[in-house]
């Protein structure tokens, strides 16, 4: 079974280590390779999936949007989110999926909040990552989703676009401190707090409510300033590591049809961080 990941750059991707460990753990004879694909070569590279009989690929930065043009069919979620990160080759017919959002939600449910139904959620940011997460989140029937963004018009536009999928509203970053007081879960999808600006926090620490769940998509560092402050407030914290593992798990399951060996995948990624 031939698999791979297309991106530019791609050399530092942890996906090959993760998926090769998964293939080995399931006794599947196959290989998952990093594929350095430039923007101008994307179309030919996608055609190459069929030509070289790959079972599928992951697609990463900067190709997740552009690649939508080159698949034969788009999964409904990928179409609504507007990005593809996984392609399955069904006997020459390429189907594009987005496993980032559902991967994140599966990680959140397994590690921090098992049931999202009826919950009130504040999402900070509304870029590409947030779209995947919010779409998957709405599928869990939360009571309320508040999307706060620096460019407030994008938050309003998203709330309008997906208003038919659930109770969703947009707000400005200035309103975050007040809105946070009434939620069960805060999710940061922005790069605020990412290495090297690790002291930055997307919400004033004093306004993080005690005892709620706080999640940050960032995994460098694994414990951002937001999560450190939340921990000090007795919150349950959740980082971006699981999102990476579970987006891979869903992709693996689409390609192979069998449950992903989560522990082997986590172990391989942890090992590749230290090696
Ligand atoms: P990604 O695919 O990682 O989500 P993106 O699509 O560029 O990346 O989106 C980044 C998100 O983080 C956006 O919501 C962005 O806000 P804007 O829409 O106003 O650009 C938000 N963001 C990035 N840097 C930020 C900062 N310094 N402060 C607040 N929000 C920030």
Multimerization state: single chain
**Count of helical segments?**
10
Major sheet: 6 strands, mixed
Could you list the spans in which at least 5 consecutive residues all have pLDDT below 50?
none
Q: What's the helical proportion of residues?
A: 25-40%
Mean pLDDT: 97
Bound molecules: 2'-monophosphoadenosine-5'-diphosphate
The outline comes out as globular
Strand content: 15-25%
Order of helices and strands: EHEHEEHEEHEHEHEHEEHEHH
Q: Strands of the largest sheet, in order across it?
A: 2-1-3-5-6-4
Structural class: alpha/beta
GO molecular function: shikimate 3-dehydrogenase (NADP+) activity
Domain Shikimate dehydrogenase substrate binding N-terminal: 5-87
Binding site for NADP(+): 76, 217, 240
Organism: Paenibacillus turicensis
Describe the structure.
The protein has 275 residues and is of the alpha/beta class. Helix 6 (152-161) links the parallel strand 8 and strand 9. Helix content is 37%, strand content 20%. Strands 2-1-3-5-6-4 form a 6-stranded mixed sheet, sandwiched between helices. A 6-stranded parallel sheet has the order 9-8-7-10-11-12, sandwiched between helices. The chain is built from 10 helices and 12 strands. The two termini are 26 Å apart. The longest helix is centred in the last third of the chain and has 16 residues, at 241-256. The mean pLDDT is 97. It has helices spanning 15-25, 42-51, 76-81, 100-111, 128-138, 152-161, 176-179, 225-232, 241-256, 262-274; strands spanning 2-7, 31-36, 56-59, 73-74, 86-90, 93-97, 120-124, 144-149, 168-172, 185-188, 213-216, 236-238. Helix 4 packs across helix 5, helix 4 (100-111) crosses helix 9 and helix 9 crosses helix 10. The structure holds 2'-monophosphoadenosine-5'-diphosphate (ATR). 2'-monophosphoadenosine-5'-diphosphate is lined by residues 125-130, 149-151, 154, 189-192. Keywords: Amino-acid biosynthesis, Aromatic amino acid biosynthesis, NADP, Oxidoreductase. The active site is at 64 (proton acceptor). GO terms for molecular function: shikimate 3-dehydrogenase (NADP+) activity. Residues 240-269 form the SDH C-terminal domain. Homodimer.
């Amino acid at each position: 079974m031939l698999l791979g990941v297309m991106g530019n750059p791609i050399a530092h991707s942890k996906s090959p280590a993760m998926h090769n460990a998964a293939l080995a753990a399931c006794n599947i004879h196959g290989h998952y390779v990093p594929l350095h694909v430039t923007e101008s070569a994307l179309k030919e590279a996608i055609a190459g999936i069929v030509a070289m009989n790959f079972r599928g690929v992951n697609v990463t930065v900067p190709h997740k949007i552009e690649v939508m043009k080159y698949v034969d069919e788009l999964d409904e979620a990928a179409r609504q989110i507007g990005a593809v990160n996984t392609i399955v080759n069904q006997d020459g017919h390429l189907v594009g999926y987005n496993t980032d959002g559902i991967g994140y939600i599966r990680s959140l449910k397994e590690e921090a909040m098992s049931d999202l139904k009826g919950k009130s959620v504040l999402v900070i940011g509304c870029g590409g990552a947030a779209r995947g997460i919010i779409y998957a989140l709405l599928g869990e029937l939360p009571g309320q989703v508040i999307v706060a963004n620096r460019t407030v018009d994008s938050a309003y536009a998203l709330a309008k676009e997906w208003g038919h999928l659930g109770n969703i509203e947009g707000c400005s970053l200035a309103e975050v401190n007040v809105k946070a007081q009434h939620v069960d879960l805060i999710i940061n999808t922005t790069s605020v707090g990412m290495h090297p600006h690790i002291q930055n926090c997307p919400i004033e620490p004093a306004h993080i409510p005690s005892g709620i769940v706080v999640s940050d998509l960032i995994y460098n560092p694994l414990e951002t300033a937001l999560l450190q402050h939340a921990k000090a407030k007795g919150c349950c914290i959740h980082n971006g590591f699981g999102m990476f593992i579970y987006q891979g798990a869903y992709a693996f399951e689409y390609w192979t049809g069998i449950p992903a060996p989560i522990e082997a995948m986590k172990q391989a990624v942890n090992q590749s961080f230290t090696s």
